[in-house]
Amino acid sequence: MQRPFLTLSRSLVVVAAALIMTGCTSEPSAGSAIHEAAQSAAADISRGLYRHGTDLMDDYVRWADEDTRKSHDVELVGYEVYPDAVHGEPLGVLQYRVSVRAVLTGDTYVACFESTVDYWGVSTPERRGWSIDEQVAPEIECPSHATRINPPADTRPVPVVPDGIEDLVVEILTAAPDDATAQQIEAEVAGRMTQPTGEREVAFDPRALVADGRIGFAMGDAADCLLVKRTEEGVAVLDVPKILLQPGELGCSPATALRPEDQLRAPH
């Protein structure tokens, strides 16, 4: 009577081993190593999204699309916009599907997570939560028929300083008559400059200032600023530290071009 019992016991062991080797076991739960790996992959994507401060959720969707397309495991499968969000508050959530292959079985574990973002990047319930995967990317139920989404197209113009504009401005300011107005200088620069041809690129508006026989000219922003002045000493292209061109500082403006040179040096 003992032989059948022993035979049945051996059979159960063999079946259990087969189940384990083929991955036919219960789904990994939160806290398992493979689940933690999936959650960490989603959280790492969200931590790396920040490019610059933005109140536009579409920016984060495009950045998430860019970064997840470089990932072997994480896909962007959805997002939600908070329509009444104000500056500093959460803008919406990004939804990811993560697929992780188990080393021992070769099976693929799939789970979904979402991350909340605000002006400064990923947002967590606690200030110290940025380093905690569970707060950066809490688990959600995978949307039915989830598939990678395409981000909304960015149709915003990209202002640039056109090629060759420095030489053109120097030529125009050098030849400008003493009674030239700011509007005349701006119109001549705009009419003669080479138009940019890059995707969505447009030229910054030229800006001039005439004061006490001097001419100040500016074009661009803090990241790329052309400043030129004409005084009794001649025409000069200025090299001003970027820190002084930031909003709230002197800025990229024709008035900055006419400031005394000692005000255009980097602060110590």
What are the main properties of this structure?
268 residues, alpha+beta, five-stranded antiparallel beta sheet, four-stranded antiparallel beta sheet, elongated
Question: What features would you describe in this structure?
Answer:
With about 270 residues, the protein is α+β, with helices and mostly antiparallel strands. The chain has helices at about 1-20, 35-45, 55-70, 135, 165-175, 180-190, 255, and strands at about 75-80, 90-100, 110-120, 120-125, 140, 160, 200-205, 205-210, 215-220, 225-230, 235-240. Strands 1, 2, 3, 4 and 5 form a 5-stranded antiparallel sheet that branches. The protein has a 4-stranded antiparallel sheet with strand order 8-9-10-11. Strands 6-7 form a two-stranded parallel sheet. Strand 9 and strand 10 (about 225-230) form a beta hairpin. The longest helix has 21 residues, at about 1-20. Mean pLDDT is about 85; it is low at about 1-25.
What structural category arises from helix and sheet content? alpha+beta
Shape call: elongated
**Structure summary, number of beta strands:** 11
Number of helices: 7
Main sheet makeup: 5 strands, antiparallel
What is the first-to-last residue Cα distance? 94 Å
Averaged pLDDT = 87
Q: Could you give the order of the helices and strands?
A: HHHEEEEHEEHHEEEEEH
Radius of gyration: 30 Å
- Low-pLDDT stretches: 1-26
Helix content: 25-40%
Percent range for β-strand residues: 15-25%
